[in-house]
Amino acid sequence: MPAPYSTAKNTHFGKFATTSRLVACLISESLVNAYFCPYKKNEQEGTDDVIVGLTLLLRTRGSTEKIELSSSTLSINDILAVIPQRGVPELDTKTKVMVNGVQCYKIDLADPWDMLPHIYSPQLSSSHTTPATLPDSESVYRQVIQVLTTMGCQGKISLADGFDAVQLWQQFSHDYGVTDKLTDLIASELASSMDHQTYTYDYPKPLPTLESSYIHWEQSIVEGHATHPMHKARRSYSPLPPLNPGQVNLETPKLRLLSIPKSSMQLRGKFETLAAPLVDAILEKTGNSQELRQQHADHVLMPVHEFQIPNVLERFKDASVLPEENNVTAQSLTSIRSVAIPEILKDLTVKLCIGIKVSSALRTITPYTTYFGPGFSEHVVPRLSYDRKVLTIERELASAVYSHPDTDIAKHCSCVLRESVANASSDDDTIVVAAALVEKIQKPDTDITLSKHVWNLDTEEKREAFLNRYVELALKAFIPPCLENGVAFEAHGQNTMCRFDKRTGELKGFVIRDFGGVKAHNPTLKKTCGVELDVLPDSCVVAETMDEVYKLLYHTLFHSHFQRLIRVLDMHHNGRGWEMVRKHFVAMVPKDHSMYKFFMEKEKVPGKCMIRMKIEELYRDYIYSPVPNMLLSRPQELVQ
């Protein structure tokens, strides 16, 4: 049965989920200055929900000047937002300001998991309203005001709870100088994220178990990306219809067939042979598949997501769509665009293009990806250094893409056929997408995650044992290809699957999929494997230096993957989780290796900038900003 929930709270939490992620990005990408101001508990309050302090998000004066916190005054007019904290963010303890006896610290990196679900905006009115949306609304507000009053905040202190991502973005973008057009575009994506997040809370799924199918686990995602403010955005563009929550079925979509002249297509691998069972199943809905194939001689018959059809017909005039009756129902995986049809394709999944934005990316498949995957799978994967008992790599066996000189057009008509370990897995294994482990149990107002619930991790000893084995095996899976061959997989939670023993729940190993975000250093690869990457010109998978490879592995495996699991298992603030990571890392990587120096000797590492990339309208070109190296994270002791 689904976990119990309260729809009265869902809109508030839907806004908070997106807004807290926007706050985290603004801070971590150094777009604003933010300070942590500790809260001194009033012993007479007697509340169970005492904040540990506030995050003060300060405004900007254009893109070149960020307001600093002054030791002499704190003006309410300089504050963009106030966020009560339940956990201390990552601080620059060398940069601190004493404000009326309160020692405030510059924040280097923020995480939504540390924030209480209240984001306040300063109000011009001398009165305030504190909607009693949550049980702690009044007590948290009182504590927030207490901190600001202690700091001698000038002006009438009036705060409104429920500052949402669109309001916050519009205020920031006005201060920063973002164009009106781009401001409105990003605001629409933030609004989409909040709407779809609320809808997800409103319609909880049955909780998965160790007996559940891998597809059940794939579709159990409640919030998704832990720090991206467009984490739940489902934004479509003409000629596609609007993607309003609940109106388009993205979990069990229909697959239709495109018929395109072979002269217009670029095929890699044995695409037509591997796709034949699916194509035949679709054709047989209206007649004999062989007869229908003869009608489409000299054409490629390619599966297409039903929602993508208007994009194809508008852009590719020689493409036709077979009748609506020719379809099969698929089941989407976590990424939405990858689908499974296990009763037809037992050993494969299908990656399809859909012209909608999920997070920052338009979920199409570029010619760079369709070209790279099959060649990498055939020539590089078999030669990589890794333990085949610990890591399984799902090869991309074949692909098809429309042949067009403009890759931004071609990417709307493409398809990849990928191995499916989960479809063909043993009955002894439970395959779980790693992202699901850190998801809440289908409701917003809880700290209980699926990992705690399904594996019964109700003590620190159990959580420590679970995490220790997880980190050790994950590093054994993903360090060797990087260390030995100069290849980093995009090992975040969506691309990584875990193999558990169905009977005992013990972790057995990992599966990695999707090669679109791989980074590889050709000289190292050639030296150790005797091959180089076969890529199209300007492919973003080629790394010029090994630091680029390390940067990709850090962002996906350590920052996005490990950090989230460590936090939800309550092993971040006590330092135990990162101690485990360091212990296993140094046991595998020699101290004189450049990989050791990157991960263990740098206080700051490049952090991927989600919002800066949006402001600069970038997707394939990344922007990085220095962030604290979480491998070196230790418990923080604040001096008052």
Automatic annotation (TrEMBL):
Family matches, as InterPro entries: Aerobactin_biosyn_IucA/IucC_N, IucA/IucC-like_C, LucA/IucC-like
Sequence ranges assigned to domain Aerobactin siderophore biosynthesis IucA/IucC-like C-terminal in this UniProt record: 465-584
Sequence ranges assigned to domain Aerobactin siderophore biosynthesis IucA/IucC N-terminal in this UniProt record: 213-438
Q: Provide the leader sequence positions.
A: none
| Top-level lineage group | Eukaryota
- From the UniProt record, which GO molecular function terms apply? acid-amino acid ligase activity
Q: Which GO terms describe its biological process?
A: siderophore biosynthetic process
Can you name this protein?
A: IucC family-domain-containing protein
Which organism does this record belong to? Circinella minor
